[in-house]
Amino acid sequence: MTAPNALDHVRPVFRRILIWAAVLAVALAVVGGVTGLVVAGTPGLAGGLLGAVLSVVFLGLTAVSVLVALRVSKGQMISGAFFGIVMGTWILKFVLFLVVLIALRDRAWVDFPVLAVVIIVGVVGSLVIDVVAVAKARIPIGVALPGDGGSSASGGSADAGNDTPRP
User: Fold this and answer.
1) Which residue, 1, 70, 119, 123, has fewest beta-carbon neighbours within 10 Å?
2) What secondary structure does DSSP assign to 59-105, as a single string?
3) Residue 152 and residue 163: Cα distance in Å, rounded?
């Protein structure tokens, strides 16, 4: 038995995530930039804008990696290629995140606390986007439910042992 092909069902969910990420990027840039400018001047503005860009790049990398992995694995989410691409991207994001933070740590042109707060808000926002998009998705899982009239996974009838009349 092969796993159901998820390519056609998951692709719209991740496209929706990417669209919402663009909206999050604009909101983070505007709110983070203006707040940073008020709190810390020009370095705060730079920190707010840079934090917004980094947040959305990291969110986008996750969604794009899943889309690419689905294409490479031909929609089989239990494929080693799928997991390799997604996990490899997550590791790359983590390393890139550390490199960027270390590189920006002592720069006078960016306010590090504003940068950190905007990145944290971006991460929380991206988690909310992921949860809402996946929770609202209608992705079939290919399982017969009791009352569907099909057979269950054990090979018997879905109504085996149930003498209750059905309308």
Assistant:
1) 1
2) HHHHHHHHHHHHHHTTT-TTSHHHHHHHHHHHHHHHHHHHHHHHHHT
3) 17
